[in-house]
């Protein structure tokens, strides 16, 4: 069955052949782009596209999914229903806009940090680069702590082993995850598939396993309009960050530019659309199943105990399988999301070094910067895993408004101001993304100061 392309998809349609020489990768003028739009077709779906789809899915489904049902479900069933309807367009349109910013650059190998300098100037570019790094880097540290705690708990509670010294356990785990990133994007995408496919299967299995426990008791009453609006407002940021895969969008877009040339923008839309569908189906299916199985009282008990939802389910329902699935989900989710956030943190750190330490690019080689950034990320993530600081959760919350602004508001400003993105102006989706971004940032700030 075929369908007519929407005006937005037609606007981004471009040739799909892979360029064979540097000359073929030269950016087209607006006139050239317009002349090719009518006859352009999307490059056929292939393993490369599937790998990035799974990689982006893995970036989004991080450790936060273990607490997502609790945080989202406590707002009530009706706000959760509205949020479920809204989260797909919010996720797709926002990440598509960020990808368009990168794909529209005149330099096909330029990442988001270089794109911002190109569009907004050196000063604004440096500010955004620093904020971009500070928003993503703490999450890398949090995953270093999370993977150490999860594996230590598995060793003690499920395997009955004596725990390793924390410095050794954290070092082995952080080095193992970092080695995947140092090996390159191709290796990262392969390993991510090994992790994410089982993760999808486990999420689906838990969703089905909990169906016999479903109950709508306590969820029937429609809350007062004020309470309904506030619950929905506070729920939106939780879902935004559970579905956020922006740290990997820049390298994803650069990779598509290198492979598809002028057809990268349309291909990016296709990959991001499918990624958003997978996230809604499997993540929200998991959330709904957990919420209905636990009920309002069970969700509050899990929050009071500060336990991941699967750990609480194992304790209250007496399901031994859940006790094993919990660590499996946590480890695979943390590892897969760590990879995507490493990409963003390394990208930001590299840009900071190049623009502020060696702006003329004469003292430091690309290889030297890459090695230095990798050593920095490994050492600090290892240290965080050893120290196990509780302040990291607060850092993550403070980084939230920056991530929401970069993902939702900055691309819309670029579309409004940058000539290369002018053809995307005047779309209803732009208004929707701006409103969603303001709501998300406002909800985060309210939750911090309540």
Automatic annotation (TrEMBL):
Organism of this sequence: Citricoccus muralis
Domain of life: Bacteria
Region entry Disordered, spans: 1-40
GO BP annotation list: amino acid transmembrane transport
Gene3D superfamilies, per database record: Amino acid/polyamine transporter I (1.20.1740.10)
Name listed for the protein in its UniProt record: Serine transporter
Bilayer topology: Multi-pass membrane protein
InterPro entries documented for this protein: Amino_acid_transport_2
Pfam family, one: Trp_Tyr_perm
Protein location: Cell inner membrane
